[in-house]
Specification:
Blueprint (H helix, E strand, L loop, with lengths): L2 H8 L6 H20 L2 E2 H8 L3 H13 L3 E7 L7 E6 L5 E7 L3 E8 L4 E9 L6 H17 L7 E8 L3 E2 L4 E2 L10 H9 L2 E6 H12 L8 E6 L3 E7 L2 E2 L36 H13 L18 H9 L3 H25 L3 E5 L7 H14 L2 H4 L3 E4 L6 H15 L1
Parallel strand pairs: 4-7, 7-10, 11-14, 14-15
Antiparallel strand pairs: 1-3, 2-3, 4-5, 5-6, 8-9, 11-12, 12-13
Helix pairs in contact: 3-4, 7-13, 8-10, 9-10, 10-11
């Protein structure tokens, strides 16, 4: 099936009568296989409350469309062995584009939710300019050109950006909000691929919830520890967005009584003392006060210190970096303790760039959680580090692009 036919199948275009009913039933079949895996016609007909002959007819049409396949026979207690049917992995594909301050990671997911290929940490400078947006679109275009699949079968993509994202209308209010046209529409017009937007922390959480360390847990919190702090929330097995899609802004809780101006424009936010930005600010202050570090005098980056510089220095046993990570970690842990007391979550997952420092930040966070959260609540909450690591955002973006198209 060509791209336009595939898109027609997954679109919400207005049709009526028998054609509408059959299309809806086909989508129900795909969603059932997506959730439950390969199945027989008998089981499918029973689950969807349709007759076996009708189920057979619809499955045959989906096979002709290239979306389903006969996966072989299974033994049956009575009668002939039954055929089982499943999704065709290479029938269509989905892109996830995870945008960070200094690089972009892009991945390609197939129809059965397997990561086909990924290009991690492509150099890129995120700035709120038209040139930066053009550069991002160019990187995506190059990835599509070099991908080991037919580009006509890439049906949708999701771009993960920091800040305020309205995933429903495709607007980014923190980056590339230059005119009234939604950012998703601008990218879609230039690339010719259905485009969605998502907050980067929520995309990472989405990836971890569906393809990472979460198994049967229904109430989970994912903390993205990067230049800022982001939160993804899973309640009763469903990702919580909030009314406008802005849930999870933990970094902007007015946590401290200080005069430090946050990038959001307010003072005292948790991010001002417990984030990657805070870590860089503290590091520069200590250096100005005369403390020493292995980062000092780097000829390649005179006057510039990035988060990755401090992380690498800590991993090489730079004491200033290690001490500041402990200070930052303790404050992050206080914020996590607040969340545990409020949500009584089954699991808290720590991810993001700062977690590349391992125990240097994990142990202070763990200690602060024990100190500041209610023991009865804390004892029911498991603390884990992200299983997907840097691929959480890429996989999450791919899955969101897929789920929004299938929805």
């Amino acid at each position: 099936m060509q791209q336009h036919n595939l898109l027609d199948f997954f679109s919400g275009e207005s049709i009526s009568g028998v054609a509408y009913k059959n299309k809806e039933r086909k989508r129900m079949i795909i969603n059932h296989l997506d959730q439950h895996g390969e199945t027989t016609i008998t089981d499918l007909a029973s689950a969807l409350n349709i007759s076996p002959p009708k189920a057979t007819s619809l499955i045959n049409e989906l096979i002709a469309d290239g979306l389903l396949k006969d996966c072989g026979k299974i033994d049956s207690a009575v009668g002939r062995p039954a055929s089982i049917y499943g999704l065709v992995a290479d029938s269509c594909f989905f892109l996830g584009v995870d945008v960070k301050h200094y690089y972009v990671s892009i991945g390609l997911l197939d129809f059965t939710k397997n990561l086909v290929t990924a290009n991690m940490r492509i150099p890129y400078l995120l700035e709120n300019t038209g040139q930066s947006l053009d550069a991002l679109i160019s990187l995506i275009r190059v990835f599509i050109r070099d991908a080991p699949v037919n580009s006509d079968h890439i049906l949708s993509l999701c771009i993960n950006l920091g800040g305020r994202i309205n995933t429903n209308n495709g607007n980014s209010y923190s980056f590339f909000h230059f005119n009234e046209e939604p950012l998703s529409s601008i990218v879609e017009r230039q690339l010719g691929i259905r485009t969605f937007l998502e907050n980067d922390s929520r995309a990472m959480a989405y990836g971890e919830f569906h393809k990472g360390i979460v198994k049967n847990e229904k109430n989970v919190l994912f903390l993205n520890l990067d230049y800022g702090l982001g939160l993804g929330i899973l309640i009763d097995g469903k990702v919580y967005y909030g009314k406008s899609g802005f849930s999870g802004e933990i970094g902007h809780i007015p946590f401290f009584d200080n005069e430090i101006l946050c990038h959001c424009g307010k003072k005292g936010c948790l991010e001002t003392e417990a984030s990657g930005r805070a870590l860089i600010r503290l590091f520069k202050e200590k250096m100005d006060q005369g403390q020493t570090s292995s980062i000092a005098g780097n000829p390649e980056k005179p006057g510039e210190i990035r988060l990755t510089d401090i992380i690498e220095a800590a991993r090489n046993e730079d004491m200033l970096s290690i001490d500041l990570l402990a200070e930052i970690g303790e404050k992050i842990g206080r914020g996590v303790a607040l969340l545990i007391n409020i949500f009584n979550a089954e699991m808290v997952i720590l991810g993001g760039t700062l977690m590349n420092t391992g125990d240097y930040i994990y142990l202070p966070i763990r200690s602060a959680i024990n100190k500041y959260s209610l023991s009865l609540v804390n004892s029911d909450t498991k603390l884990f580090v992200s299983q997907l690591g840097e691929k959480a955002g890429v996989i999450g973006g791919c899955l969101i692009a897929r789920s929004k198209l299938l929805a």
